[in-house]
Amino acid sequence: MTCPHPLPGTAELHSVRPRPRSRLRRALQAGFFSLFVLAPLLDVFRYDLTQGHFVVFGRPWVLDMERIAQGSPAEALELMFWRALLPVLILVGGGLWVAWRYGRLYCGWLCPHFSVLEFINGLTRRAHGRPTVWERSRGDGDRRWWPAVALGALVFAVLWAWTLLSYLLPPARLFDHLVHWTFTPGEARFLIVATVLLALEFLFFRHLFCRYACAVGLFQSLAWMGNPRALEVRFDRSRAGLCKTCAEACDQACPMRLKPRGQKRRMFTCTQCTGCIDACDGVQNGRPLLHWRSEPWRNR
Fold it and tell me: CA 284 to CA 300: how far, in whole Å?
């Protein structure tokens, strides 16, 4: 539904008061992002290329092929089940079940990439009046924010590149190479290439990557689409006339640049961030037309 009124400006969108659900989501995002960065440093989880095995809570996680070869078939099967099959089933099966029931909840509430996406979206909106450079500016942005956009993208790109490398190589060795500036050619190439690619992605392709290139998000969306009773953002069409007084606040609030009032198939990549619900709630003074629901609804 197209609204004849002007689109909300940057000031109006930033003035939307965070709801308790939004504050909880921000806290979870901050916590998971911290875990993402600190996990390899604290040996919570990483893969050590120098030793050829995973490290989980400071202990090596290996199949122990010698023990498998020397033991009985039953012992070998038991070891493979506990060390390989069960963790994969829990991670993949559990993740798909959550997605089937709740959609891309991981993306909107935990994913460290989506946290960066929303942060840089906010900076870009201040500089450009829109959250992405692919949307035409309305002239209400402040160009003085562009250095902050570039700096934010670069800082997060460096942090991500360093973190990804620390998942593969011993962090203590990397910090020693950083202090003495003695990176190996392979480490230097990885950091430079990853930083450049990530900076470009954070600057230009944030939501486009999530919508079209993220395999984790794709499988979550496919599982979600297969459940007609899954949690989703739904539009109360019986009160659609109230949208005439709104300037598409829900559309402008969506970090994935979707149309929240559309049908589920058009919301394929919805991350369940509920930004659209909060925006509608603010416009309609506590009686939003958008709701989080998981049961069939006739007005859908």
Answer: 19
